[in-house]
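Quick one:
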Amino acid sequence: MSGELVPPPFARVRRLGLFGGSFDPVHLGHEHVARSATQAFALERVVWMPAARPPHKPERILADAADRVAMLELALEHEPSWSVSRLELDRAGPSFTIDTVRALNGVLGCASDVELFLLIGGDNLVGFAGWREIEALLARVQPVVVVRRGDEREALAELVRGLPEPLMRKVERGIVAAAPVPISSTELRAKFARGEPVDALLSPRVAEYIHARGLYRPRHA
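Output:
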C-alpha cells in the first residue's frame, strides 16, 4: 500500500474522503466510521492519515509512526479503495488538518471537480469549532460526522455556539447516524496492558502485530 498522499490510481477520483487521527491503534470503530461515510456520501476513495502529533493531545506519547502505519496497512488491506498516507507524519510540527487539506489541494492541482470529504467521529465534535482556521477548512471540505444513531441533536448542540450559521448548516448536512460501535483506542490500549481479550475489537492481523511487537504493555513490564 503506497505511502504517497494520493497514489496514482486515486488521483483521478471525484469524491475523496480524508480520515485523520492517531490510530493508536486502529480498530473496528475506525473502519465503521469509514464505511458509514463511504456509503452515505458515495465516496470513491478514503485516504487515512495518521497524525504525527495531534494538536488537541500534545501530551500524548504515541506508538512509533512506523508501527501505526504498519497496523493501518494490515487493517486496510482488504479494502482496495482505502490507502494510508504519511503526509502528516513526514511534516514537522502538530498535525493541523487545514495544512493537510492545503497540501492535498496542491497535489490535485486544485481541480474543481474533486470533492473533499473530511471524516470525523462523533466524539471529535467536542472542540471542532476551535480547530485551526476552521472557516477556511470548512470552505474546502464537506465534513462527514458519524454519530451514534439517536445522538444527532446532541452532536449538533456541541457546535451551536462555535460556528456561524452557514457553516453549522454545512456540518449538519454531513451528519451520518449509524449503529454504535462502543470502542476507543484508549480502551484498547488499556485492555492490551491488562492482558484482556480484544479479538472482537480490531483486526486479527493488527492484534497479532501488537503482540509480536510488544506494544501497549505496562511501562513496568
